[in-house]
């Protein structure tokens, strides 16, 4: 069995889950396995119904203790199901939360972990995956040496699955061990507002120190991002200066994105930042410093003042509408 | 209380990596203590400076060259160090199992692990180590307060940030923003040379079997067009939109 662990937000499946379904379908024939989807949460019937349009079987673990993303109870549910269905592979999205519980799942199942994979294949009787290393400068090929295999899949790289034959959903009742519920979740702050999630965005507009101030960032980056239905990203310098929140930071210590278009405004292009975006399909940069390293990784560059070019860009985009 | 900070030694972020016949060539590359691990050392030092009674132990699992990074941790203020020295490359899950033996043996109650390793781009060691120990963990931690048997932390999530409280013992993985690490002073670098650095073999707690094997490494840099668009802002912006739409087809 291949287990696909669903991610959801606001009562809907995340795009990353449908990418996992694509990976699972590709592996299913090589592993001669069926696919089971797993949905966990406190009120997730609509999400389970949605997932059942894509996979033949959905297991729903519904429990008030699963309302929050906590690694230990999630690990207990996932490993419980994996043992029950004798899973060969467990697929998890390599989001912050997925990266938090997948190592625990691997350890508890005594399984290899293929982390943040960008491609995966069945080779002989083993799974072989590629992933990025050395601040995304190297692609490494990793072989899982035993079964089952736990795998976190990098978001935004695989196509979204199309609906298949409708499947069935069944309930599973989690039972908690003493240690499962010891972490308490307190207050939350969420960034990004109503914008598209950064890792899922097809277009990302990023702002750097060249925008001059928090106000400059808000005035130039945000409206352009809204016009392009894009996610907003920041450099570390901007976050350190307190202009923006960590949730938007792209780079070594922030998020890794690979959108179709990465539009960098006033971003100099430090190596740590590049590691978070250098796999984007197309990079365009606007910066007044012609020697800025960002131009080395850019497909298109405009050497100029963002305060002049961005409004002109918005006007040019408007002409298209 | 004993605090363990896990140390890795990684290529400097600015280092140029070269392809080798097999994998990549790390000869001539400058190695440094992983920046994410420095946050852990710094946080342990700050807890002690706040009056918290703690012995700080730097622990590393890796080849002989790691010694330099371990000495940096000692120069920053760690009291002693343990180096499980091996040339065997082990995946984070297997490393976690090995390190959990050491943490248990030392009876440490708090372990800091770098949030994301700058060589393997991996965030797995911290959560896996917590699981091997049967402890809770907080990853991508940006703020930490210690109370009686409890940690209160703020950490990064997919949506933003959230507060957690977790009982000790616990594993904390670091994130930028947790603190601003200090630089080692010359007297402290000298002092670090006399601090205890214990070496242990990889099989100290029995045989070790890796779960995954790296079978290939390739430097892949996407070819970029590097086209500079000339003209005044209005012309350049129009041309950029045209190129993104007609040539790159991303709009």
If strands are numbered along the chain, what order do they take across the biggest sheet of chain A? 9-8-7-10-6-1-4-5-11
Mean of all residue-level pLDDT scores of chain B: 94
Q: CATH H-level name of the largest domain in chain B... which superfamily?
A: HUPs
- CATH-assigned homologous superfamily of the largest domain in chain A: HUPs
Contiguous low-pLDDT stretches of chain A (5 residues minimum) are: none
* Rg from alpha-carbon coordinates of chain A: 21 Å
In round numbers, the mean pLDDT of chain A is: 94
Query: Which overall shape of chain B is indicated by the principal axes computed on the Cα atoms?
Result: globular
Summarize the helix and strand pattern of chain A as letters: EEEHEHEHEHEEEEEEEHEHEHEEH
Describe the structure.
The complex is a heterodimer of chains A (321) and B (251). Chain A folds into 2 domains: 2-172, Rossmann fold; 198-320, Rossmann fold. Helices cover 28% and strands 29% of the residues of chain A. Chain A has helices at residues 15-31, 45-51, 71-85, 96-108, 214-227, 236-240, 271-274, 306-320, and strands at 2-5, 8-9, 12-13, 35-41, 57-62, 89-93, 113-123, 126-133, 138-144, 149-153, 168-172, 184-190, 203-207, 231-234, 261-265, 282-287, 300-303. In chain A, strand 13 (203-207), helix 5 and strand 14 form a beta-alpha-beta unit. The longest helix of chain A has 17 residues, at 15-31. Chain B is α/β, with parallel strands linked by helices and 251 residues long. Chain B has helices at 35-49, 67-76, 92-106, 125-133, 186-192, 233-247, and strands at 2-7, 9-11, 18-19, 24-25, 31-33, 55-62, 80-85, 110-113, 137-146, 150-156, 160-167, 170-174, 197-201, 212-219, 227-228. In chain B, strands 11-10-9-12-8-1-6-7-13 form a 9-stranded mixed sheet, with helices on both faces. Chain B has a two-stranded antiparallel sheet with strand order 2-5. In chain B, helix 2 (67-76) packs across helix 5 (186-192) and helix 3 crosses helix 4. At the A-B interface, helix 3, helix 4, strand 7, strand 8 and strand 9 of A face helix 3, helix 4, strand 9, strand 11 and strand 14 of B.
């Amino acid at each position: 069995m291949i287990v696909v662990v669903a991610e959801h937000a606001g009562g809907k499946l995340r795009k990353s889950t449908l990418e996992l379904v694509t990976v699972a379908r590709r592996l299913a024939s090589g592993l001669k396995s069926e696919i089971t989807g797993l949905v966990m949460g406190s009120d997730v019937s609509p999400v389970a119904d949605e997932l059942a349009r894509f996979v033949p079987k959905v297991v729903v673990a519904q429990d008030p203790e699963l309302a929050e993303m906590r690694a230990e109870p999630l690990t207990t549910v996932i490993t419980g199901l994996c043992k029950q269905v004798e899973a060969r592979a467990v697929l998890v999205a390599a989001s912050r939360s997925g990266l938090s519980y997948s190592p625990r799942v691997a350890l508890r199942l005594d399984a290899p972990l293929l982390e943040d994979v960008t491609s995966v294949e069945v080779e002989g009787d083993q799974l072989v995956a590629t992933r990025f290393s050395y601040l995304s400068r190297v692609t490494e090929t990793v072989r899982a040496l035993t079964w089952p295999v736990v795998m976190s899949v990098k978001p935004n790289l695989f196509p979204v699955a199309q609906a298949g034959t409708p499947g069935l959903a069944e309930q599973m009742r989690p039972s908690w061990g003493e240690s499962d519920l010891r972490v308490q979740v307190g207050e939350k702050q969420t960034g990004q507002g109503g914008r598209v999630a950064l890792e899922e965005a097809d277009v990302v507009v990023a702002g750097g120190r060249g925008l001059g101030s928090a106000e400059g960032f808000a005035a130039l980056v945000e409206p352009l991002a809204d016009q392009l239905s894009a996610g907003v990203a920041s450099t570390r310098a901007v976050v350190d200066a307190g202009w923006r929140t960590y949730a938007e930071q792209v780079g070594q210590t922030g998020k890794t994105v690979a959108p179709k278009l990465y539009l960098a405004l006033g971003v100099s292009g430090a190596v740590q930042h590049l590691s978070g975006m250098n796999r984007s399909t197309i990079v365009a940069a606007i910066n007044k410093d012609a020697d800025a390293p960002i131009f080395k990784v850019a497909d298109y560059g405009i050497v100029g003042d963002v305060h002049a070019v961005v409004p002109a860009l918005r006007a040019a985009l408007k002409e298209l509408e | 209380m004993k605090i363990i900070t896990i140390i890795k030694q990684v290529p400097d972020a600015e280092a140029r990596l070269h392809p080798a016949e097999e994998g990549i060539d790390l000869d001539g590359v400058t190695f440094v203590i992983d920046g994410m691990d420095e946050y852990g050392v710094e946080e342990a030092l700050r807890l002690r400076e706040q009056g918290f009674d703690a012995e700080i132990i730097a622990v590393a699992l890796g080849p002989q060259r790691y010694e330099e990074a371990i000495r940096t941790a000692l120069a920053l203020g760690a009291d002693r160090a343990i180096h499980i020295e091996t040339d065997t490359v082990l995946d984070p899950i297997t490393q976690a199992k090995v390190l959990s033996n050491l943490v248990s043996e030392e009876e440490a109650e708090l372990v800091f692990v770098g949030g994301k390793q700058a060589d393997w781009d991996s965030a797995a060691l911290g959560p896996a180590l917590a699981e091997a120990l049967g402890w809770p963990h907080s990853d991508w931690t940006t703020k930490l307060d210690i109370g009686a048997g409890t940690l209160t932390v703020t950490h990064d999530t997919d949506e933003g940030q959230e507060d957690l409280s977790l009982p000790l013992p616990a594993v904390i993985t670091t994130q930028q923003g947790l603190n601003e690490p200090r630089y080692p002073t010359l007297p402290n670098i000298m002092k670090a040379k006399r601090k205890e650095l214990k070496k242990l073999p990889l099989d100290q707690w029995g045989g070790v079997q890796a779960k995954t094997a790296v079978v290939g490494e390739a430097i892949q840099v996407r070819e970029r067009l590097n086209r500079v668009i000339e003209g005044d802002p209005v012309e350049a912006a129009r041309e950029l939109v045209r190129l993104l739409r007609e040539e790159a087809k991303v709009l």
